[in-house]
Design a protein that fits this description.
Blueprint: H1 5-25, H2 34-62, H3 66-82, H4 84-91, H5 97-111, H6 115-126, H7 133-148, E1 150-157, H8 163-177, E2 181-188, E3 195-200, E4 203-208, H9 209-228
Parallel strand pairs: 1-2
Antiparallel strand pairs: 1-3, 3-4
Length: 229
C-alpha cells in the first residue's frame, strides 16, 4: 500500500487531539529523582501509548477498517515478540531514522498492511515514539477488545491443542463470560505434564495434571498439619 499524504494528515490531526488530552493529564517533574520519578515516567509512557492507540482505534472505526487494522496491529505485536532483532532495531535511538523507515516500508509491503497502519507506523517514527510500539500494540488490543466485547484468554497446554479443542474451549468460555467474542492465545507449557490451564481476566480454570497433583499435595499437607496440631 502507498502512504497517501491526505490520509497521513487526517491521522496526525486525530492523533494530535488524543495526545493533547494526554498531555493535559500528565505532570512531569523538572528533575525527577529515584523511584517516584521512575513511576511518573512510566505513567507518562503508558498515557502516551494509550493516546496513540486510541487515535488509531478511533480512526479505524471511523473509516470502517477496524478489523483489518486490528489484524495489522496483531501482526506487528507478534513480530516484535518473535523477532527480537527487529524490535531492538526499531526501538534503538541510535539507528538512523531513514533506516527505520526503510524497514517499516518493507514490513508494510510484505505484510500487506492497510494504508492507515503504514501511516501510523511512520507517525510513530516521526514523533520518535517507536520505542513505545509494543505498549501501543497492547493498548490498541485492550481498546479493541473493550469496543468489540472480546474476552482474551491465555490457554497453556502441555502439547499443541487441535483447532477443534480450541473451538470447544472458546465456546465454553463464551458461555461462562457472556462475551460476544473470545480470543484465545495458545501457549505451550510442558511443566503441566498433560491437560491445559485457561486464564482470563482474574479467573483461572486448571485442568492440568500438574494442577491436580498440586491440589492433592495441598490436601495432604493440610491434613498432616491438622493431625500434628
Amino acid at each position: 500500500p502507498v502512504v497517501g499524504p491526505s490520509a497521513s494528515s487526517h491521522f496526525s490531526m486525530i492523533a494530535s487531539r488524543s495526545l493533547r488530552a494526554a498531555a493535559s493529564r500528565t505532570t512531569v517533574a523538572a528533575r525527577p529523582v529515584g523511584r517516584r520519578a521512575a513511576v511518573r515516567v512510566l505513567a507518562k509512557k503508558n498515557e502516551v501509548s494509550e493516546s496513540y492507540a486510541k487515535a488509531l482505534v478511533d480512526l479505524a472505526e471511523e473509516k470502517g477498517q477496524l478489523e483489518p487494522i486490528h489484524a495489522d496491529v496483531d501482526a506487528v505485536a507478534n513480530l516484535l515478540k518473535e523477532n527480537k532483532p527487529l524490535a531492538e532495531l526499531l526501538s534503538n535511538p541510535v539507528v538512523d531514522a531513514e533506516k527505520k523507515r526503510a524497514v517499516l516500508t518493507k514490513l508494510g509491503k510484505e505484510a500487506g498492511f492497510q494504508t492507515y497502519t503504514n501511516n501510523f507506523l511512520n507517525l510513530l517514527l516521526e514523533k520518535d515514539r517507536l520505542s513505545l510500539l509494543d505498549e501501543v500494540c497492547e493498548s490498541f488490543e485492550e481498546a479493541y477488545c473493550k469496543l468489540t466485547d472480546t474476552q482474551v484468554a491465555v490457554v497453556r497446554s502441555a502439547v499443541k491443542l487441535e483447532q477443534e479443542q480450541q473451538f470447544l474451549i472458546a465456546k465454553k468460555l463464551q458461555e461462562l463470560t457472556g462475551s460476544k467474542n473470545i480470543k484465545l492465545r495458545p501457549m505451550i507449557d510442558t511443566s503441566l505434564i498433560a491437560g491445559f490451564v485457561v486464564e482470563y481476566g482474574s479467573s483461572q480454570i486448571d485442568l492440568s495434571i500438574k494442577g491436580q497433583i498440586e491440589k492433592v499435595a495441598d490436601q495432604l499437607t493440610t491434613e498432616m498439619t491438622a493431625r500434628l496440631a
